[in-house]
Amino acid sequence: MATMLGAVTSSHVPAIGGAIAKGMQQDPYFKPFFDGFPPVHAWLARAKPDVAVIFYNDHGLNFFLDKLPTFAVGAAPEYRNADEGWGIPTVRPFKGDPALSWHLIDALVADEFDITMCQEMLVDHALTLPMALLWPGGGEWPVRIVPIAMNHVQHPLPSLRRSWRLGQAVGRALEAWDEDARVVVLGTGGLSHQLDGRRAGFINKAFDAMCMDAIVDDPERLTRYSTHDLVREAGAQGTELMTWLAARGALTGRVSRIHSNYHIPISNTAAALMVLENHPQQAPQARAA
Amino acid sequence: MTGKPGKPDIPGTTLFDGEMAQRGYALNKMCYSFNSAANREAFLRDEDAYCAQYGLNEAQRRAVRNRNVLELIAAGGNIYYLAKLAGIFRLDVQDLGAQQTGMTKDEFKAMLVAAGR
């Protein structure tokens, strides 16, 4: 049976890609952000995941407004990054896990999540940057991936409640996956930020702090925020919190906070990072011999 | 309650909803094309022709010509696609933030730093 190790949630600001490309991790502007990652590397070295299921949002690389799925599950043997138009270098391709993709697709549709299935899918900075932050240094990526893209472009966006339930459905499916694999889930984006309008530059430190506490012990509290509430509190792009809720939803056991980091600003964003470890519920009683 | 259903009254914020997505379709489609370097070069070579090819309306064409983010948003532009247009002019999201808030870039960056205190 698959083992659910936990979740890593991280911001994915494009400027991070620029900083990595230029080797600016210790630059005073970026250092407080990058210094958050060594404890994540240590946790990953202990947890040894084989596969990462990644909740993220495409920013107009793979999807356009002509056909915009609310939730899309990748089912490709390989995923590539590509030119996004504003010039961060692309990263090396990722290996997929089609067997797990189709297991998730089957399970999600059976669970009444009518997702879009993608046998070809470009993955943008929202996926590539957290991967580069978790596994820096080049070479083969040590995990296979299954990307799950969530609509964060065009309203109506999926609500936090729906995102949470999607994550729970993914968690149930992973629990039922009959493979001896170690799984980590990622949620990428956030926290509070706003890029557009006269309110550009809006950040809400107190709200973010509440979210980072609640997501550990009381994530359902966050599901009570409507999308409009969330825009008001976290900024027009702070709604990326949906990916964090989905990742948290996939943790079916007891959850503890291993590590967190929070820094304002990276570019226009309150940059945040958390590692949540999953402690599976008591295994069923061993059968009598 | 203010505003019509589905249109929350959030200061300084335009939600990119179905109405805006219809209004901005041509503009956003052009911006989406800027994922390709060849298309970015074609735009720079002949901006008028490129905008005409995508069927931008007058307000959209004017907003592009003015390099004005608030006008681009009012004309239906979505910020994720507009960022690709801005990239052609080597403008990042802090340049866009400064322009929209009427600040210098340094003032805008200082406001962000202050939000962390």
What's the helix and strand layout?
The complex is a heterodimer of chains A (289) and B (117).
Chain A: E1 3-10, H1 14-21, H2 31-34, H3 38-47, E2 51-56, E3 71-74, E4 78-79, E5 94-95, H4 98-110, E6 116-118, H5 125-134, E7 144-150, H6 160-175, E8 182-188, H7 205-217, H8 219-222, H9 227-234, H10 241-249, E9 254-266, E10 269-279
Helix pairs in contact in A: 4-6, 6-10
Chain B: H1 18-23, H2 25-33, H3 37-45, H4 47-53, H5 58-66, H6 69-74, H7 79-88, H8 93-101, H9 105-115
Helix pairs in contact in B: 2-7, 3-4, 8-9
What is the CATH class designation of chain A? Answer: Alpha Beta
Estimate the mean pLDDT confidence of chain A.
96
Shape of chain A: globular
Shape of chain B: globular
- Unreliable runs of chain A, pLDDT <50, ≥5 residues? none
Low-confidence stretches of chain B: none
Widest β-sheet, arrangement of strands of chain A: 6-3-7-2-8-1-10-9
Radius of gyration of chain A: 18 Å
Description:
The complex is a heterodimer of chains A (289) and B (117). Chain A has 289 residues and is α/β, with parallel strands linked by helices. Chain A has one domain (3-279): Protocatechuate 4,5-dioxygenase, Chain B (3-Layer(aba) Sandwich), CATH 3.40.830.10. Chain A has helices spanning 14-21, 31-34, 38-47, 98-110, 125-134, 160-175, 205-217, 219-222, 227-234, 241-249; strands at 3-10, 51-56, 71-74, 78-79, 94-95, 116-118, 144-150, 182-188, 254-266, 269-279. In chain A, the strands form two sheets. In chain A, strands 6-3-7-2-8-1-10-9 form an eight-stranded mixed sheet, sandwiched between helices. The two termini of chain A are 21 Å apart. The mean pLDDT of chain A is 96. With 117 residues, chain B is mostly helical. Chain B has a domain at 18-90: Protocatechuate 4,5-dioxygenase, Chain A (Orthogonal Bundle). Chain B has nine helices and no strands. In chain B, helix 3 crosses helix 4 and helix 8 packs across helix 9. Chain B starts with 17 loop residues before the first helix and ends with a helix. The chains are: A alpha/beta (289), B mainly alpha (117). The A-B interface holds A 14-15, 59-61, 64-66, 82-87, 153-156, 194-203, 205, 228, 231-232, 236-237, 263-265, 267-268, 270 and B 8, 10-18, 21, 25, 28-29, 31-32, 34-37, 40, 69-70, 73, 78-84, 86-88, 92-94, 96-97, 100-101, 108-109, 111-113, 115-116.
